[in-house]
Amino acid sequence: MASERERTGEARRTVRVSISGRVQGVWFRAWTAQTARALGLSGWVRNRRDGTVEALFSGPKAAVATMLEHCREGPPAAEVAEVAILTEDDAAPEMAGFEIRPTA
For the chain, which residues make up each domain, given as ranges? Predict the structure, then answer.
């Protein structure tokens, strides 16, 4: 059975990012999950003990690019200093759903 990627011919992208600034205690993880799901992305988001938020976004390249732009703004109470791409893979396997993970 053909995957969604094979059926649509759509290029996919997976990125793992670190988001710094005032990003904890401001509803960032829930906002990220809601926004990613609305864009049809899969992956996860979690707080890090160093005060950053880490996320993995996987899906159509255009949707991932849109999500990265949204992360540069964040939810209303956030003050994003930087969105750094830690890893990137254009051939990553498809994942299902988007989850909020425990702090790492």
Answer: 26-100
Here the tokens at position 35 are: 């926004």
pTM summary value: 0.88
- CATH number assigned to the domain covering 26-100: 3.30.70.100
DSSP state of 48: -
Catalytic site includes residue 37: no
Rg (CA), the chain: 13
33-67 pLDDT, tens digit per residue, is 999 999 999 999 999 999 999 999 999 999 999 99
Rounded Cα distance, 47 and 88, in Å:
20
**Out of 47, 48, 49, 72, which one is annotated catalytic?**
47
Catalytic residue among 29, 46, 49, 72: 29
Asked if 101 is an active-site residue, the reply is no
